[in-house]
Amino acid sequence: MEIHIRNATPKDARAMARIIIRAGRQGEESFPYKFPHYEEYPEDNMECTVNMLQTYMLGKDPVWDFKAMVAEVKLDDQSMLTISVAVWEVSAFAENIAEQRDQVVDSYEEVTNNGCENRRDADPARLEEWTKALDNARRQFLGPNGPVNGPLSYLHLQHIFTEPSYQKNGAATKLLFWGMRKADEHKLAIGAFASPMGQQFLCGLDFKIIAPVKVQVEGQEEFVVVTCMSRQAKS
């Protein structure tokens, strides 16, 4: 199967969102944790995921700069089908930074709502705790957690997902290789937070486990654990 990769555009957001949702529901423990009401409100999850991706690709995030990419295969009718997606936080070397990048963000709400503060599929407290826990882990284990806190020394793998029926065909690996080449070119490490399935995938590509990160809202019994991982640049 010949796989092509290319830069994503805002027009790809809906196809990318479908992959993120389907793959997330199948293999990510964090999905039901963050979105316990998905079954009742799947449309909210879709629209907010599309909104998030468009925010990435249009450079509207007030803190980070992102690079979104897709992997495609050609169907029998010669049309192209998107089968895998990756989103990289590239603030460490981005040339076209967001206009508001130097703006100090006073609250997590400013960077997490993306116009979806009233979404019905999610648990708001868990979303907030997820953002705080991962942000703290980035600061503790990977380095500065934003351009306003000093120069970044790593790329961050924000998302990487493959359509379940096309998994284990090398699409995600090909997307990951793009970031690995960029990181080596700029002498940067790569950071990521991985599910158990993602941890196995990344360990096979020279990533090392740094620490588990537990996400739990005070007063709730439910929690989820992701693994902070890193890959060092190759000379």
TrEMBL record:
<protein>
    <recommendedName>
        <fullName>N-acetyltransferase domain-containing protein</fullName>
    </recommendedName>
</protein>
<dbReference type="InterPro" id="IPR016181">
    <property type="entry name" value="Acyl_CoA_acyltransferase"/>
</dbReference>
<dbReference type="InterPro" id="IPR052523">
    <property type="entry name" value="Trichothecene_AcTrans"/>
</dbReference>
